[in-house]
Amino acid sequence: MAHGFAPYRDIPDINMPGSHIVERWQVSLFGGSDLGARIYDFTLLGLLTLAMIVIALPYDWLAGFFAGVLFILQHACNGGPWNAGQRDEVMAVLIMIGYAFLFEGLRKRKPFLLLAFGWALGMASTLKPTVAPLGMALLAIAVWQIRKRDEAPLRYVAWGVGGALIPGLIVFGFLWHYHVFGEFLYCLRTYVPLYAGMNRRPFGLLLRRLLPFGAWGILPFAGAAALATSRWRTWESGALLIGATFGALSYFAQGKGYSHHTYPIAACVLLWSSIELASAARSKKRISALAVVGIVAAIFVVLPLYCYRLTRVIPNNGFGVSLESDLSQMGDERLNGRIQCLDVVYGCYGALYHLGLVQSTPIVGDILFFAPQTSPTIDQFRESSFSMILSKPPAVIVVSDEWFDQPSTFDKVDNWPRFADYLKSNYRLSVEKHFTERAYTGYRIYVIRDQVQTPDARAQMEIAAASKFASAGRK
Predict the structure, then answer these.
(1) How far apart are the C-alpha atoms of 99 and 243, rounded to whole Å?
(2) Which candidate, 348, 353, 351, 354, places its Cα nearest to that of 369?
């Protein structure tokens, strides 16, 4: 986008505008480095934990802290850097922030605090619109609670709705800046439904992956405690359960069973369970013993298991580091604007980002390039993409064996025969590497035939580079 490519018009995309906006804020605040991304991820987790503590304050602030710790460990065990900054993580953080301001606004009878509630839920809706119904449901239950105490709800509603309009105006400004209203609607009508229908998992598998094991570990104890104490009937408890319900609906609607898709429901369930256990443990009823057992199980079973899983997390950095090295040896400065990635999303594009290289075309992601199914949308995407490649043939094409919704294999190229023939006729395989990491198993680098370097030419280039380095050292 910084090099003149417009979102949705030049860059076909399934992401909502909020994704671009939030990522831009991230880079502006924390910088575009890997360290900045890590600090951003830690900041998100810190804000989520702080919001949970605020929500749990009337019951036990440790319940909010404990829920935040469990969420952080779950996130780390889901790959840590692998899932850092996922849209669903940002959504979960914004939802918890919204809950905190909503509860505090009603507790302290300060309607203006609902401005932040509306903004947070509205901003989360610009990432994925499945959050919008949750915002409306929470505002409705808040109105019901306000009327129960004989207070006029109009000011609360006005502040909440006003806050929700702010993200809408931000999105409008984003689309206006790039003049892509029509293109955004086209992507929304075509690419989003197509992607939503791909890689959908059976209902049984989705159900098994609905919650992380940490939530399953404490939920039965919390459920029993809530039923025994009737505390679940409070409006705040009900609001958290509504959040968990909408989180589940969002998870099943996406239908892919990815671990980060559970983040919104996991945040609500972990917080609700922690509050219920803490409240029951303080009560004088017999159920307090069961609540203590649940807390002990969480501390001495769930936490150690999470810590053990952390030792099994694979960093997944070999692919990118190796590719960066190979491209640097080819003279990365000569590849700017003359290289094309055919990868799903992570490895190749991360390498180009680190090297400061821009692709020859704005094509990002090869999901539709090599999709096994056929549709008019896929045919149209392939034709427009192929036209861009022909108009400016890249000097280098990087192909990973990552194949969306299919086992990893370089044979994915053959799924689009026209492009496979073009690649075979005009490019020569220069590098092929394989890895044993969880995410990727290999990549290939193809070089256009009239620019392939002979071994002698490569040796001469290396000698010249060494001489240049030695000269710089003498200076």
Answers:
(1) 9
(2) 348
Closest listed residue to residue 264, CA positions, set 14, 57, 74, 30: 74
> How is residue 303 written in tokens?
């936490």
What residue type is assigned to position 263 of the chain? Y
Neighbouring CB atoms inside 10 A of 177's CB total: 10
| CA 76 – CA 82 distance, rounded (Å) | 9
- The pTM assigned to this predicted structure is 0.90
Strands 396-400 and 339-342: parallel
Q: Tell me how far apart the alpha carbons of residues 251 and 200 are, in angstroms, rounded to a whole number.
A: 11
Residues in the chain: 475
Closest CA to 412 of 342, 325, 336, 463: 342
**Dihedral sign of CA atoms 128, 359, 31, 76 in order:** positive
Sheet holding 427-434, edge to edge: 339-342, 396-400, 442-448, 427-434
Percent of the chain with pLDDT over 90: 67
Instruction: State pLDDT tens for residues 234-263.
Output: 899 999 999 999 999 999 999 999 999 999
Nearest to 453 by CA among 353, 331, 345: 331
Terminal CA-to-CA distance of the chain, rounded, Å? 39
- Indicate if the pLDDT at residue 462 is higher than 70: no
What angle do the packed helices 114-127 and 17-30 form, to 10 degrees? 110
Helix (H, G, I), strand (E, B) or coil at 431: strand
Kindly indicate the confidence band of residue 346, based on its pLDDT and cuts at 50, 70 and 90.
Answer: low
Give whole-number Cα distances, 441 to 83, 312, 315, 365, 432, in Å.
19, 18, 14, 17, 11
- Distance, in Å, from the CA atom of 100 to the CA atom of 271, rounded to the nearest integer, reads 12
Dist CA 21 CA 440 (whole Å): 29
Domain spans in the chain, listed from the N-terminal domain onward: 17-310, 318-470
Angle, vertex CA 178, rays to CA 174 and CA 179, nearest 5: 105
Q: Tell me phi and psi for residue 257, to 5 degrees.
A: 70, 20
